[in-house]
Amino acid sequence: MIEGYLYILTNKNKTVLYIGATKDLKKRVELYIDGKAARFTKKYSVNELMYFEKYSKLS
User: Fold this and answer.
1) Confidence band (pLDDT; 50, 70, 90) for 37?
2) Among 5, 2, 1, 8, which residue's Cα sits nearest to residue 48?
3) In this structure, how many other beta carbons lie within 10 angstroms of the beta carbon of residue 10?
4) What does the pLDDT look like over 48-59, one tens digit per residue?
5) How far apart are CA 21 and CA 28, in angstroms?
6) pTM
7) For the chain, does the N or the C end have fewer beta carbons within 10 angstroms?
């Protein structure tokens, strides 16, 4: 069974949305906060977690 997280991030003004998936949500969000993630999120200052949902899938 594969477990992971679907998440939605936004910027301070809540004008940009970014959707992603990861196995380690805490580590991934820390990358966005530190500005070490995708160029898009760095360019638009996307670093606030709006929503997340845990999922599991049979492999």
Assistant:
1) confident
2) 8
3) 18
4) 999 999 999 876
5) 9
6) 0.85
7) C
Distances, alpha carbon 28 to alpha carbons 42, 58, 59, in Å: 13, 23, 23
Amino acid at 18: Y
Q: What is the distance between the alpha carbons of residues 3 and 24, in angstroms, rounded to a whole number?
A: 10
Using the structure block, give the residue that is written with the tokens 């898009």: 40
Domain that holds residue 38: 2-57
Number of domains in the chain: 1
Sequence letter at residue 40: F
Tokens coding 30: 């820390």
Q: What is the helix (H) or strand (E) element at residue 5, kind and residue range?
A: strand 2-10
What rounded mean pLDDT belongs to the chain? Answer: 91
